[in-house]
Each structure stands twice: as C-alpha cells, then as structure tokens.
Amino acid sequence: MFNAREVIIFLERKNISYIFQGNIDFIVKGFSSINKPAINTISWIKDVNKFNNPSPVFEEILLVTNFGDNQIIKDYNVIFCENPKATFFEILDNFFLKSTRRNGYISPHAVVSSQSIGEGTVIGHNVYIDKDVNIGKGVSIGNNVSIEGKVIIGDYSIINSGSVIGKEGFGFYKDSNDNNKRVPHFGGVQIGKNVEIGANTCIDRGTIDNTIIEDNVKVGNLCQISHNVIVKSNSLVASGTIITGSTKIGKEVYIGPGTVVRNQIEVGNKSFVGMGAVVVKDVNPNTTVFGVPAREK
Fold first, then answer.
1. Mind telling me which CDD domains this protein's record contains (predicted)?
2. Is 227 designated active site?
C-alpha cells in the first residue's frame, strides 16, 4: 500500500515528465485494468480523449493517461504523461514487483554444477546447469531449463521454463564416405543484461565463436536461435520465430511472430519484420518487410 505522493516522488526520481491532479494523499492498494476498475487501485488508458461514460469507480482510482483535455476526468486523481503505458508499468514494477521478488533460491530438485552463480539468482525445479556456466546476479531461471557448456548470462536476465541453452546446433558436413557428419561446436552462448528468453526456446552454442544475445533483448516463447547468431541490443523477437545460423540481427529490430530468417544474412538496425515473414536476403536498416519471401513495404 502506498499513496500518490510516493508515486510522484518515484516519477521525479526517474525523470519522467508528468502533471498531477487530485488528492496527493490518495491511497493505492493494488492495480486494475481500464475494463475492470477497482476502488483504490491504479490504472491506465492510452488516450484520455477517448475516455467516455466512465464508471463512478474511476472517482476512486489513480489514473495514468496521456496529456489531453477531457472534462470528464477533471475531478479525478490523474497522472498526465507522454507515455502512459510505459509510466504505468514502471510504477507497477517499482511498487509491486520489486516488493515480491525473492532472495536467491536454488530448488533442491535442480542440478547445479557451476560455482559461478550470482547473488539473488533464483533457479527453479528440475533445472540442469553445467559446470562451465556463469550466471550474473538477480537472474531468474524457470523450471525444467537446461544450460550447458560455456554459457554466460548477464545480470537480471530471465530464462523462462523449458528453455535449452548451449546445445549444439544443426550443422553437418559430408565426410570422405559421403555421409553426414556433425560439425563440432566449440563456442558458447553469451547472454547480456536484462535479457528475457521465453518458455521452450532453444539457443544453440556457436561453432567457433559465441552465439550472442546482447543487453535488453526480449525473445518470445517457442523460438529457435541457431549457432553463431548475433542479436544486438534492445531488439524484440516474437514467439515462434526461427533465426538460422550465423545471422546478424541489428539494434532495436522487431521480428514478428512466426518469422523465419535464413542463415548468414543481416537484418539492419531499427528494421521491422512482419509476422510470418520468410526473410531470405539482407534487410536494410530502418526498413519494413512483410510476406513470403519478405519484401519491403
């Protein structure tokens, strides 16, 4: 439980621009959605000018919304800001999530061979962590996760349940008898800080160099990131995506659900790849592509 005054102090500390109206001592006991508002909660709406015929309950909540001029809410408790979605979830992260995060914990059902586990890391049930793995502080590892080989996981990253990190990728060559022989993988996986890896996602280790996931990358559920791939900082890889070997994904790229990216190509910085696309050639920076094969919009 906290009040609006504490929220304002938090926003100022984070340098988030705002205008507040209402009761500075208003008590917040929880949070609610705009569709199911509850008394003494905090909620948000993207566009205040589309806020029509609100429930009387809104007189008893703290509302986060964009700068605007809607007379309906002139008597409400409101935080006006430029990005209400980001501001609302920053508030929830600070006042609700941080207060519930556990101290470091390793399940008695986990097999942890590594001696390099950072302070405050949580490791779930039925997890296997190899001796060469290095895990930073405050990392969260879900249940039934396997991490093998030379893997580095940066501070405050999240590895969700069922993920497999550090196994060999799909690489073969023809031997002298024309039989398929597996390419040995000597590299590892390097995962940066504040990365999120979705449930049941596989990240293969590199053949010689590492597979690299840079800081603040978010990867959805059921993804495949193959050997030698590099995903640069602040990129988003949505669920069901397959990124094949030796591909480079630039900074601040968005890759939509169910996308397939061919091996050994480059997706430039700040590009957007639409859902279900099949990317078979390089994508220039600041470009939007859709379709099969993917073409510029």
1. LbH_LpxD (cd03352)
2. yes
